[in-house]
Every structure is written in structure tokens, then in C-alpha cells.
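dumping this here before i forget
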Amino acid sequence: MTIPMLPKSPEFQTKITILRELLDKHAVDGVLLRRVSSFAWATCGAASYVNTATTEGAASLLITRQRLYLAANTIEAPRLEQEEKLADQGWEFHVSPWDTPLVALQSLVSGLSLVSDVPFPNSKEISADMARLRARLTPQEGERFRELGRRCAAAMSSTAQAIRPGMSEYQLASLLGSEAQQRGIQPIVNLIATDERVYRFRHPLPTEKKLDKYAMLVLSGRRQGLVCSITRLVHFGPLPDDLRRRISAAAQVNAALIAHSRPGRTLNDVLTQGQEAYARAGFPDEWRQHHQGGVTGYEPREYLGTPASSDVIIEGQALAWNPSIAGAKMEDTILVGSETNEILTITSLWPIISIQIHGQPGEVPCALALEV
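structure:
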């Protein structure tokens, strides 16, 4: 049988080369990818999921030193071939009946030594290694991220303009999800809190509670596998002084985290700068109430910035920090550039405040106050 030739896409060639380097690194015969995120990364954006909440997709990739295999069932194979064009990309399809969906994959891996991005029989799991590979974005992925950021920002802005007091959190979530879907964005995180719930919960699943004056909207949107995150605050009428202080403090922390996310810095070093910003703003312990974000890519966070995170930030990576103080949260997705960082989720509706970080100006969005 003729071995498929690699297509001319530099991005795809780079990824297959990286995957085959893992064969020698781990002295194995094959790399098995079953995660939705890894499948999208390796195929430059194809979707293997059916259930949008699942970690493992309905198709798997097996990379050996000479072949590229795709194992799927009779339901998924036609779409992956005809719409995702993965046969054209160079993947050799092996199809199972829908009632025994893993038979083709089991045949392919029989007798092989493997590394895998999920726990799998007779393989070594390398999920942490794969997360870091997915986080090393190519220039092409950077461009796709820019477009994704613009679309997520537009969805958030349109939602803010449409919401009114008296709407339930379910209605707000419906608006945000609809605005995202209309732009080709899959809302894999859609969190809404109104009024006192903004103060009480850091991960507020929407409820039937009705909006009085204040709302927090959180979106993680997926397109072509990449995931972009954004949070915005909307307030009807003048901001109370205490809320303004909390929003300003969260914005100061956000500006510090973004400003220090530079090539060569470690995530724990950036987190330390964030902790110091919390203290300067008068909220020294709030960072303990929720993770602060980290490196993004094909997962909402490929890995977090924690006090133990020694991962080094590199040029071209995407990060999403999300500092929060009870009642306020800031979140944008950025691309790390050679000279400066680029905020991908700029929303013109929200006023921009300028904050000095070690003498350098930083700009971050504040709350949107709407007069009723």
C-alpha cells in the first residue's frame, strides 16, 4: 500500500515532525491521540467530538514512523473525510461498525508500544507533554486566534447591548450562546451571575434569577479547536463606590499579569507579580479563592499559573489570566509578542482604563455602566 505523502502545509508538517520526535524520545512505535483538543491540534483544526462536553472524541489518530492512521466508526468517518478533508491531509482511514466502535483502533495498536494523551491500555500517558506541545502555537494558529478573539469580543458586545433588567440568567446565557454560535463560535463555557451572585460564586452556572442592576458574563469560545476566553461586567446605572473599588483592583491585577507575561518569564514569577498587585490594591488574599488563569490553546487552559509552575512563557503563546475579587472579575486572551503583548478580545463598548505597571502604561477594560 502506498504510504500517504505529507501535504504542503507547513503547520501540518511541523506537527507531524514533532509527534514523530516523541517516538524516539519515548522509544515507542506509535503516538495515540484521543483527546478532542489533541485531534484538533494535530489536524490543524478538525473536530472529532459529537458530545461537546466530552474529553475524548469519536475518532482517534495513530502516528507511527511511516504512517498516519485515523480510526473512526461508520457514523463519523464520512464527515471527517468529506467535510474535514482528513484523507486529503494524509490520514489513512480505518473504519469500525458503529456497534463496535473501537475494533479498528484495537487492531491498529495491537502489538505496538505506545504513548497516549489519555489513559489507554498498554500505553504510557503523556497528557502533560501534549498540553505543552499544543500551547506552542504556530504563526498560522496565531492568526486563527486573532480571528477567534474578534468574534468572541463581538459576541460579548452584542449580548451586552441586548440585555435588560428583569431578564433571567438563563436568558442572558441564551443571548451570549446565540451570539457566539451565530459567529461560528461554540460556547464551551457560558457562565452568568447577576447582582449578589457575582459576589458569591466564582463559577456561576446560570439560574432563573432575574437581573436587577449588575451582571457578569463569562465566555470560552471554541473555533477550529482553539479556545478563547473573555469576561465582561455590565451595570445598569452609576457604579456604587465599593464595586468601583473592586473592579479597579481586579483591573490592576489583570494589567500586572498581562504586563509581566513576557518571553522568558516563568508562570510562577508572573503569578507572584499578580499576588503583589492584589496586595497593593488592598485585597491580599483574594487570589486564593480562584485560579488566576494561565496558558491557553486547544483547552480553555492548557496549564495553569500556580506557585509551583516553572513553565517558561515563549513568544507566540496565548494566555488568559482571570483575576477575581468578590464582586469583580477580569479576563482577556492575549498573544505574547516579541515586543509587546496583544489583547485579542478588545471590546470597544467597555471603557478602557490605563494603569501604570513599573512605569509602563497598561490598558484593560473596566465595567460597562448603562443608564436605565
